[in-house]
Amino acid sequence: MSRPAGGRRRVADAVGVRRGPAAVLLVMLLALVGALVSAYLGHRLAGWPAEPGFRLGREWGYGEVLFAVQVAWAAGLLGWVAVRLRWPVMAAWALGFVVVLVDDRLMLHERAGAWLARSPAPVAGPAIGELVWLAGLALVLGAVLLAAHLRSSPAARAASIVLLLLTVALAGFGVLVDQLHVVVEGRAPHTYLVTAVEEGGELAVLSVIVAYLFAVACDGHRPGHDMAGTRAVAPSGMRQPLPASLTRHPSGPRVR
Amino acid sequence: MAMLRGAVTLLGLRGGPAATLAVMLLAVVGGLVVAHLGRRTIGRPSHLAFGLAQETGYGEMFFSVLTVWAAALLVWAAVRWRQVVLTLHLRAGPDARAVSGVLVLLAGGLFATGVVLDLLHRFTDGGFPDALLTALEDGGEIAVMSVLVAFLFAVVACGHRPRPGPRLARLMGVRPAPVIAAPPDVRPGVAVPARAP
């Protein structure tokens, strides 16, 4: 029992959400995700709440809008970190999140897939066209990220690697569980459970990403970096010493 | 400007995590107001849920989420301070009483946007003035609630304790903050949790 607890603690340390404001924010966001998943299950099982917006995975449903808001928050926090700490790799990540948001909301990959299928290029159909578009996008963004990563400081690289791991977890829900969903759709009786895991998991991981970036941006969190390509400069989860003006709460005296 | 600075300092939103949260929440409110005005004037975005006065629209849902967060943070503060919340103002300690006083002021802001603007709204009959007043009324309510959540976040998560000026303190029934020279590295209103060196 102690090993998983220790593992969880290490993960919470690396993400910077074991205590402090980022932990409070994470609790707030995860409570919201839990409420959305519960409302979706209630909607499917008991018909209450009746509002169709509670259906997870529905275009412009509350879940989709929360996803868009969280991606926008993540992009904003990344942009702030990039400017404030002069970490170019975070600017590359911000660009990636903005592209994901714009692609998702404007359905760019669907449109590009259809356009490629109609074009003289040898693309079999819209689905393959979408894959070609997404692969191209991933290639360009990956190249930008790699270049920025190699030009960043060890602290920035460590923060970037934690973000990469969280993004892989996000993709796990978005791609792997999504594929499972496609397989069981129409064959198994309770596919809404797979939808709940897929959409709820995506939202939960995104909440962790927002809380992590919140900890890095305004709580001085710097993940320890004993990962490949970085030199360890601080124990995992250590918060770098901040200037005294930021670490003392000055509520007592009024200043003249 | 000095008044605004004083208000932001009182709320603990001049810097630090709570100020970041306030910016995040107010950015969502700004996006909702712009989407509402766009929908009413040029028809984009076309989705009905972007209407701010729309029942179960995004604005109403966001307001509900903020209200639940505020309630949960209040309960958390009550449990941590072991005081039967800030409802029993006169029986509360000075810190809790100051928090309660600020909450009363913010509730006044909610009342102003919810009731006064609503009254004004009744005199408009459609068109852009109606869309604008809806944005001010509903957007204002959500904005005040966002500030309230950020203030409670500063109190609960960052250890912020509001110190009102003499006149406000008399109104709230709390002792005013002593006027002393601050240490050079102190930034008033920046709610950041204290840490061991």
UniProtKB/TrEMBL annotation, chain A:
<feature type="transmembrane region" description="Helical">
    <location>
        <begin position="203"/>
        <end position="221"/>
    </location>
</feature>
<feature type="transmembrane region" description="Helical">
    <location>
        <begin position="128"/>
        <end position="150"/>
    </location>
</feature>
<feature type="region of interest" description="Disordered">
    <location>
        <begin position="227"/>
        <end position="256"/>
    </location>
</feature>
<feature type="transmembrane region" description="Helical">
    <location>
        <begin position="162"/>
        <end position="183"/>
    </location>
</feature>
<keyword id="KW-0812">Transmembrane</keyword>
<feature type="transmembrane region" description="Helical">
    <location>
        <begin position="90"/>
        <end position="108"/>
    </location>
</feature>
<protein>
    <submittedName>
        <fullName>Uncharacterized protein</fullName>
    </submittedName>
</protein>
<feature type="transmembrane region" description="Helical">
    <location>
        <begin position="61"/>
        <end position="83"/>
    </location>
</feature>
<keyword id="KW-1133">Transmembrane helix</keyword>
<feature type="transmembrane region" description="Helical">
    <location>
        <begin position="21"/>
        <end position="41"/>
    </location>
</feature>
<keyword id="KW-0472">Membrane</keyword>
From TrEMBL, chain B:
<keyword id="KW-1133">Transmembrane helix</keyword>
<feature type="transmembrane region" description="Helical">
    <location>
        <begin position="58"/>
        <end position="79"/>
    </location>
</feature>
<feature type="transmembrane region" description="Helical">
    <location>
        <begin position="99"/>
        <end position="120"/>
    </location>
</feature>
<feature type="transmembrane region" description="Helical">
    <location>
        <begin position="140"/>
        <end position="160"/>
    </location>
</feature>
<keyword id="KW-0472">Membrane</keyword>
<keyword id="KW-0812">Transmembrane</keyword>
<feature type="transmembrane region" description="Helical">
    <location>
        <begin position="21"/>
        <end position="38"/>
    </location>
</feature>
<protein>
    <submittedName>
        <fullName>Uncharacterized protein</fullName>
    </submittedName>
</protein>
